[in-house]
């Protein structure tokens, strides 16, 4: 091939141009591809991904990683935790909404992401591959953008289906992956938003393929259209709508749960007081009947004191009630359940820490594994709705819902509502 | 937003680099952040994470797109006009296959682990039956194609009626729908 001045490549004849195949603009024949269509998908993703990123950051904060080492899945986070704040208990449905939006919106954006990638495919093969240092740097950034998006969507979607085939802990991968992605995303928005807005203002009319506004997206040899651009947008929208329809019900709950036909928590596990969604059954985390039988004790420690309670003694303490949902990081949640049990603040008072109850380390009889213990903040302990629940909807807890006793805290992620609790240690760790 | 202008930068910078200094600064800032998070991301199974990340970047462009583009062309060929037919009139009929196939495809793309029964511990974890998803996806797919077929039938019926009532409109009706060949 003749060496060509990169600046002239666009205007040179076919002999000096790109090799046969996808690098030639005329290889791509869809009459739909153009700046307007790409801009529509881009703007939808700009808003959608921003919401998904922010709700993701909120979920990370809800785990209270700064409170204690046992809460922190990413101890090496460094400055990436700069925004962390103490997760509130009001409104009690906060995590249910933020995480439901995070997961459902992420799933719904999949067709839009695919359509966006489809619409810009000629650029992947643009010839010459590297025209300048600036363009080379931008292509590396695009690798981070597209790889980061695919990585985040894939790990997130697989995790909601409990399909843990990704190479490491979900929390680590999804959190650090998000930060790799978001820098490239911000740069892409900064460099392309102007062009996208201009393309939207110009409307769907296709510009000349060689013009600057065509941005290399418009085919110089378009095939006869088989679908209108509006039809293509409709098809993508229908894909998103279908995903919304088979997913959202697991977060909305109630009657709508049955519409979540393909979502992991679209079915009811049973009926009766304990017939609501289960994150991990007793059997799946190795709880033996003897662990939660007559020999079970609740140990409450703090302020240099310790008391042990049997199940009967726990039931004899003043019981309080709270209407609270279970809301999982996987996006699903339950309607408000009617819990009753002993206030965490009252249990702190048993060891003399009643006036200003401190944070508490909650430990389960569950053997090992993530989230078998957690530290709840003082703010969470002091909320009158924070209970060590023994009953739900009028019945004793079932083994799968944490019998003999489980934590329920307003607004907290599901895994912080520790089940099969055997020890509460109030105060700072020694 | 206009592409950042060179401003006070020496005129040679844009020529050598190919864009404004602001472009370079933006990219460098994002690369620094990507390195900061990326080093943490790559701790542990470095190779596995790298393969997943690069694979995620290429999956659509080099695997999915060729697959669905070739399938789409094949369907167009199958439903399109016979070779040698005079006018290359596009066939709206292809969209009655394309749209339900696309919707069914994205449902499978998102929910394949459950649909294809890949999550062995699903039932022991959640207490929910795992064998419902394949059947549900197949029935949804059946409904999508059936609904698309119903729309096509109504369109053809309408087009046929229009053509009978207004013979001059026959040409435009034929363009809208897949003709009987």
From TrEMBL, chain A:
Residues 295-426 form the Oxidoreductase molybdopterin-binding domain. The keyword Membrane applies. Residues 1-24, 202-223 are annotated as: Disordered. The chain crosses the membrane at residues 36-63, 93-119, 140-158, 170-191, 231-256. Gene3D superfamilies: Oxidoreductase, molybdopterin-binding domain. The keyword Transport does not apply. It comes from the Bacteria. Keywords: Membrane, Transmembrane, Transmembrane helix. InterPro entries: Mopterin_OxRdtase_euk, OxRdtase_Mopterin-bd_dom, OxRdtase_Mopterin-bd_sf. GO terms for molecular function: oxidoreductase activity. This is Membrane protein. It comes from Streptomyces katrae.
From TrEMBL, chain B:
Keywords: Lipoprotein, Membrane, Transmembrane, Transmembrane helix. The chain crosses the membrane at residues 21-39, 51-75, 96-114, 134-154. The keyword Lipoprotein applies. It comes from the Bacteria. This is Lipoprotein.
